[in-house]
């Protein structure tokens, strides 16, 4: 009996289980939203929405949980026999979650072209299968469908928020492509770029969920800050996994960032203990020896950090 109740508690605490049914419905609706007239475009647009390759669906999960936390108890009956207000609100928030996921996937398609990536989510990347041109057009198509759906929400403030996040995606990618050596070694620059590339879409969508629920002022600001901090933390962990994960667990090659010359938080932290890494960053990472040296420095830093934490804890 004890084990059963413990299992029940664990299930109730699992955030994915709280919105599992909605996520399944969301996946189905996303596949319907990306149907295109031209067969090749349709095949490209649905590439990462097919069953089995939808990814973690982290953003829709966060948004649906945010909606659950923020929604007020609305009266069910409304005039003229229309849909209950609570159900209508939830449907609008679900649509926002779909829009956010479409924008995210579109950005992945474009990123893979820019990075010349050949794998994504454990399978061949779309640009590897269909070429760069089709991949770029598929990303553009997803963005256009997302914009049409966004307009249908009829909320100018929400439209403005998400549009700004789209601008930030482009700004962040440009920052990554055009960094100087000084900027690559700056934690402040890294954090700003990370906000634009990852956290902005999550934070803006969290605030949009609050606005759709009629929340304004402090609550909407708190929703934004929650999304911002969660998005930043998500990217920091993702950057660490690039060093510690395997190709199988990541769905792409490990150490892919530094192989592309991208300096992330683990390297910046390791530089505090190994200042000589700066010279390696100046040289670049075309030489495999430099990649191995940076990886070694991160592992050494990780060991020293954990040893220090253990010493202080005990």
TrEMBL record:
Q: Which CDD domains match?
A: Trans_IPPS_HT (cd00685)
UniProt keyword annotations, A-Z = Isoprene biosynthesis, Magnesium, Metal-binding, Transferase
Top-rank taxon: Eukaryota
The UniProt record lists the keyword Transferase: yes
Q: Which GO terms describe its cellular component?
A: transferase complex
Q: Which cofactor does it need?
A: Mg(2+)
> Which PROSITE patterns does the UniProt entry name for this protein?
POLYPRENYL_SYNTHASE_1 (PS00723), POLYPRENYL_SYNTHASE_2 (PS00444)
Matches recorded under InterPro entries:
Isoprenoid_synthase_dom_sf, Polyprenyl_synt, Polyprenyl_synt_CS
Q: Which Pfam families does its entry note?
A: polyprenyl_synt (PF00348)
One GO molecular function term? prenyltransferase activity
GO terms of biological process kind: isoprenoid biosynthetic process; ubiquinone biosynthetic process
For this chain, the family text in UniProt reads: Belongs to the FPP/GGPP synthase family.
Protein name, per record:
Geranyl diphosphate synthase
Q: What lineage, starting at the top, does this entry show?
A: Eukaryota, Viridiplantae, Streptophyta, Embryophyta, Tracheophyta
